[in-house]
Design goal:
This is Acyl-CoA synthetase (AMP-forming)/AMP-acid ligase II. It holds the Pfam family AMP-binding. GO terms for molecular function: acid-thiol ligase activity. Keywords: Ligase. InterPro entries: AMP-bd_C, AMP-bd_C_sf, AMP-binding_CS, AMP-dep_synth/lig_dom, ANL_N_sf, ATP-dep_AMP-bd_enzyme. The chain is α/β, with parallel strands linked by helices. It has a domain of about 100 residues: ANL, C-terminal domain (GMP Synthetase, Chain A, domain 3, 2-Layer Sandwich), CATH 3.30.300.30. It has 16 helices and 26 strands. Strands 17, 18, 19, 20 and 21 form a five-stranded antiparallel beta sheet that branches. β22 and β23 form a beta hairpin. α7 crosses α8. The chain is globular, with a radius of gyration of 23 Å.
């Protein structure tokens, strides 16, 4: 059976004394302890009047209580709605309203905003995530009140997580992750990530990035592994130190850190010899950087392509032999590997016809995976457009060579990937367009030395309007998370358009590149 709660229960039965979670500031939870605590929390939620299917939101960064909540919600048959910890109150409000959330957990520094949102949406505020070492906190008191008897299991096809993503147009969409789709992610990753039983994962990302929780953390519980949650990350040096100190066997390396981690790995080979996999994460990296990285870490190199619509799983992945023996790919270090186990990838043109696998014919990447979500929450029309006959039309563009290696040329047509964070131009444009002085606006990704890309706004002012860059930035600061705000503003007389009056974004991008 594919209920996610069973993953933890089975782990606790088989390895009760094995450490499931430890933090680098001293907290440790065994499988038995974690299983009991999450059962108590599940029963406390049900005892508080919530019913299976109710949406429970959480607005927090990385912390042990958040991972407990995932498994508690799974055991109780509830539905988790993660809200990005970087969001403003304005941004969080949409997700809470759209999902129909009935309650909210939150971290302590969001208390005032959480109360405001509770008033706005009629939410029940649940205990804040405070100090995880405090035995007498409201959270611990709430958890302790629950029974240790496992609640009735939800159906394996029941909704488990609503993970909000977005296209380049329209409102954010809630991808519907079921227990079964996520269990298939865990199966996929046990193979794709090369994680054996007992794998030790170093986690230093933000749990607001839902795919990392689904794809890394829950998948490590599936293989009865240990999660080392790193607190107070201080650059690549601190991560490399933790890899050695904690005897890590699996972790990830984001694009901005590839050059620094390559040099650190070269200087300190004694710290990472036990590692089985370094998976590259976030945005695309230059092939030359990836080649240098692979020359140092060897068979531990792993590249792939995936997204939230795959319940956090990979659709494509590289293999060990391609690194050690050489690949027959057209350009291995520019590729995202071949289709992962149990997955299929097609390249189609605008009419849905398959394109040749010649490495140069670019079309939409269409995928099959048993980990696909079941659609978008309350978005039947968009679901029907994106999920057809068992295939997911990703909106990403790419090509495939004759050997089956996939090359992702763009992260969706106009998506901006800044330091691994997705920035959707339409959302930034909608914010700026609210200003009465603005006649037209287009946002594109400009090159950035560290983050790869950064949002740049091209603005046409209304006649006689007085508007400067600082006014734009100040307005965006009120409504948008920091990574979404434009770092540069260009005032222009008009925007380039084609015959059908669509803005020619590629023209704007070329202006920035030159």
């Amino acid at each position: 059976m594919d209920q996610i709660g069973r993953v933890l229960v089975a782990g606790a039965q088989q390895h009760p004394e094995r450490v499931l979670l430890k933090t680098t500031d001293g907290l440790t939870r065994t499988y038995a302890e974690f299983d009991e605590r999450t059962t108590r929390l599940a029963n406390s939620l049900l005892g508080a009047g919530f019913s299976p299917g109710d949406r429970i939101a959480a607005w927090s960064g990385t912390r042990p209580q958040y991972l407990e909540l995932y498994f508690a919600v799974a055991k109780a048959g509830l539905v988790l709605v993660p809200v990005n910890s970087l969001f403003t109150e304005h941004e969080a409000s949409f997700q809470l309203g759209d999902s129909g959330a009935v309650a909210l957990f939150y971290e302590a520094d969001k208390a005032d905003k959480a109360r405001s949102l509770a008033d706005e949406h009629g939410l029940r505020l649940l205990p804040e995530f405070g100090d995880w070492h405090a035995a007498d906190s409201e959270y611990e008191t709430f958890l302790a009140g629950g029974s240790v008897v496992l609640p009735p299991e939800p159906d394996e096809n029941a909704l488990f997580v609503i993970s909000y993503t977005s296209g380049t147009t329209g409102r954010p969409k809630g991808a519907m992750v079921t227990h079964r789709s996520l269990k298939n992610t865990a199966r996929n990753h046990a193979h794709s990530y090369r994680t054996p039983l007992g794998s030790v994962c170093l986690y230093y990302s933000n749990m607001s990035f839902v795919a990392t929780v689904l794809g890394l953390l829950i998948s490590h519980v599936f293989v009865r592994g240990t999660i080392v949650m790193m607190i107070d990350v201080d650059g690549p040096e601190s991560v490399m130190e933790a890899i050695g100190r904690e005897k890590i066997t699996f972790t990830f390396v984001p694009t901005p850190w590839i050059p620094a981690m390559t040099e650190l790995a070269r200087q300190h080979p004694d710290k990472w010899q036990q590692v089985r996999t370094f998976v590259h994460s976030t945005s695309k990296a230059p092939p030359a950087q990836m080649r240098r990285w692979a020359e140092v870490v060897g068979h531990r190199y792993l590249e792939g392509w995936g997204m939230t619509e795959g319940s956090g799983s990979l659709f494509t992945v590289t293999d060990v032999d391609s690194v050690l023996k050489g690949a027959d790919a057209d350009d291995f270090y520019a590729s995202a590997g071949r289709a992962a186990i149990d997955c299929g990838v097609r390249i189609v043109d605008e009419n849905g016809e398959d394109l040749p696998h010649d490495g140069v014919s670019v079309g939409e990447l269409v995928v099959y995976s048993p980990a696909l979500v079941v659609g978008y929450w309350n978005r039947d029309e968009i679901t029907a457009q994106s999920f057809r006959d068992g295939w997911f039309y990703s909106g990403d563009l790419g090509a495939m060579d004759a050997q089956g290696f996939v090359y992702v040329t763009e992260r969706r047509n106009d998506l901006i990937v800044s330091g691994g964070m997705n920035v959707y131009p339409s959302e930034v444009e909608a914010c700026i367009a609210e200003m009465p002085e603005v006649s037209e606006v287009a946002v594109v990704g400009g090159p950035h030395e560290r983050w790869g890309q950064t949002p740049v706004a091209f603005i046409v002012r209304n006649t006689d309007a007085v508007l400067d860059e600082q006014a734009i930035v100040s307005h965006c600061t009120q409504y948008l998370a920091r990574y979404k705000r434009p770092t540069s503003v260009r005032f222009v007389e008009d925007l380039p358009r084609n015959a059908s009056q669509k803005v020619l974004r590629h023209v704007l991008r070329k202006q920035l590149e030159s």
